[in-house]
Specification:
Elements: E1 8-12, H1 17-28, E2 32-37, H2 40-52, E3 56-61, H3 67-81, E4 86-89, H4 104-131, E5 136-141, H5 154-173, E6 179-186, H6 192-202, H7 208-214, H8 224-235, E7 246-249
Parallel strand pairs: 1-2, 1-4, 2-3, 4-5, 5-6, 6-7
Helix pairs in contact: 1-8, 3-4, 4-5
Length: about 260
Amino acid sequence: MGLLDDKVVLVNGGSQGVGAAVARAAVGEGALVAVTGRRREPGEALVAELAAAGGKAVFVQADLADAEQARASVAETVAAYGRVDCLVNSAGLTSRGTLLDTSPELFDQHIAINLRAPFFAMQAAVADMLSRAAPGTIVNVITSSAHGGQSFLAPYVAAKAGLMGLTRNAAHAHRFDRIRINGLNIGWTATEGEDATQRAFHGAGDDWREQAAARLPMGRLGRPDEIADFVVLLLSDRSGVVTGSVIDWDQNVLGGLD
């Protein structure tokens, strides 16, 4: 028996990075998976990989910056499988901006991807669960920077801090519906997206991971597969009655000072 046997899991932002790792882990635990992404090629490649491993998965092309497409990701999953039992919001925009140089356009992009998309995907998923009077689980992948973050992440922090509050608000609102909603504040993680960000915004070379690892307590960055295992646990019945929790998944301790 897998932790997610016969559960329908929608992973928004699931075609690469943490989202793709969650899709792999969910299939490995018996789930039927739908993954979304803006680009068809990596999404379909992931679905083919999962099918080759004996899993069942579909790709839903969606630009989550559009609230209607965020909601439609749930509708298309229901069309494919008949329901949504679990939702993972893992899409994220990490482009840089400070309080002084962030344009309204950049701010709106962060709100659209990092806050509005999860809001309306959750709205649609919870509506499906309620229509069936069925329990469900949602996990929002947030960031440890939501507690304050670096000065060059101002719009990112604003949006993700909003998602942290939304996670708790929605969990409280739907606790008697047996819909559990939790979040993970993940730390520095080695993903394709982080590699692109380090190169584009910080002039990083091929050895940036090694340099970063040398400064971290555990001597390495977090891995997407580790986060995915934690997400699967939160989606599953093995996490019990836990709801409204936003867990700091990081190797630095918030509030700790040397």
